[in-house]
Design brief:
Strand order of the largest sheet: 1-5-4-3-2
Order of helices and strands: HHHHEHEEEEH
Number of strands: 5
CATH superfamily of one domain: Kinase associated domain 1, KA1
Helix content: 55-70%
Keywords: Membrane, Transmembrane, Transmembrane helix
Strand content: 15-25%
Radius of gyration: 22 Å
CATH class of one domain: Alpha Beta
Structural class: alpha+beta
Number of helices: 6
Length: about 190
């Protein structure tokens, strides 16, 4: 990710550029079967209405459910690049050192470290796909994004509970590290 993309991501409060589009195709393909079911039911129900046949309410429920699932999956796909901000009141290089320490403490695998970005992967939980953590550093703030990294040809973008759990986990660890450094500074005084 270039410095310009990092700046644009922070300004937009979501990942932009290569990091944003890295895995979107596989997530879109994960929605394709739901779209097919919804489309077949739409056509089937449409033919029943046109031919004045009675409509089975079971099929209507499945049609509505698959439509809601399709909408929800699309919504999650759009918002999976959102960044969560943590106010630290530290400069970018100190934020980077703090973040690296926290990621190592959480035993995540660091894939890339540059001036203003750290990319890591969290271990799989319960056979779920690997989570990719992107952390952007700026003065006074750390920005975090967690999303699934597809290990197959397609994935469903619904598994956000694990991503939110990882964000809370890293926020807690960063807050703890900030509190520890504040206490250490107070003890020196």
């Amino acid at each position: 990710m270039s410095e310009r993309e990092i700046y644009d991501s922070i300004r937009a409060e979501k990942l932009v550029g290569r990091e944003a589009w890295d895995d979107i195709t596989s997530a879109g393909l994960g929605l394709f079967p739901i779209l097919c079911v919804w489309g077949m039911l739409f056509l089937s129900l449409g033919f029943d209405v046109v031919k004045n046949r009675p409509i089975s309410w079971g099929w209507v429920v499945i049609f509505m459910s698959s439509g809601i699932l399709l909408f929800y999956g699309s919504y999650k796909l759009i918002y999976e690049n959102k960044l969560s901000a943590i106010k630290t009141n530290l400069d970018a290089s100190t934020n980077k050192a703090l973040t690296k320490k926290v990621i190592e403490k959480l035993q995540w695998t660091i894939i890339e470290i540059k001036k203003y970005i750290i990319v890591a992967e969290a271990e799989k939980e319960w056979g779920a796909t690997t989570e990719k953590i992107v952390v952007l550093m700026a003065d006074n703030y750390i920005y975090i994004n967690v999303k699934y990294k597809s290990g197959s040809k397609a994935r469903l973008p619904f598994l956000t509970g694990f991503s939110e759990k990882k964000i809370k986990e890293i926020k807690k660890e960063i807050d703890d590290a900030l509190n520890d450094s504040t206490k250490a500074n107070e003890e020196k005084i």
